[in-house]
Amino acid sequence: MKASGIFSAFPNEKVKIVKRDSSIIENIDAVIDSKKIFIENTEIDIEEGDIVERDLPSGSVEQFLVIDRGFHKGSYGIPDHYQIKYRRQSKIIDNDDNKIINQYNISNAEKININSTDNSITYKITDNDLAVMDTICSLAKGLDNEKDIIFAVNEMKKHAGTKSYIEKYNAFIQSIANHMTIFAPFIPLLSSLLIK
Predict the structure, then answer these.
(1) Residue of 91, 94, 74, 93 whose CA lies nearest to 83
(2) How far is residue 51 CA from its own chain's centroid?
(3) Is 131 contained in some domain?
(4) Is residue 74 part of a domain?
(5) Are residues 187 and 137 in the same domain?
(6) Which of 7, 53, 80, 118 could form a disulfide with 74 if both were Cys (CB 3.0 to 4.6 A apart)?
(7) What residue numbers bound the domain in which 145 lies?
(8) Is the pLDDT of residue 138 over 80?
(9) pTM above 0.70, yes or no
């Protein structure tokens, strides 16, 4: 069923929003293009750090991290609406050479292969990633939930590059919910470590 508002002339679909507190808002009409997600229902509270999800015909789920909710005040007959800027929550693996990817190695050290062929992809936490995480821990000092934030960051360090990283990332987002203005600049880098 198509939306009846200003975006009804465009292909639209139902999405759901996963809030930072893990609550879910379902059946939201949206128009998704290559740069923005348009949502006319402004009674929904959309915030930076929320995840917009849509189901694909294949049965998989596509996720978009909200980096700017893009609220637009209505004028000249156009109602209030959101033009959400997002970052797609996935990693694209370059597999042009038809390599067989059969292993994930997560480490902060170089790999050594002895008498073996390596067809794996290594998700390495770079020194820059570690420096950013250390900066986040420094910024957390003195905040009311300092221990929770630092614990969440250390958990992300341990699980970067694994499927369980998303749980640790979501726990981190929840721990900084009351301090988003401090930590928002770091979210794009941390979300880039997510894998599908």
Answers:
(1) 74
(2) 6
(3) yes
(4) yes
(5) yes
(6) 80
(7) 125-191
(8) yes
(9) no
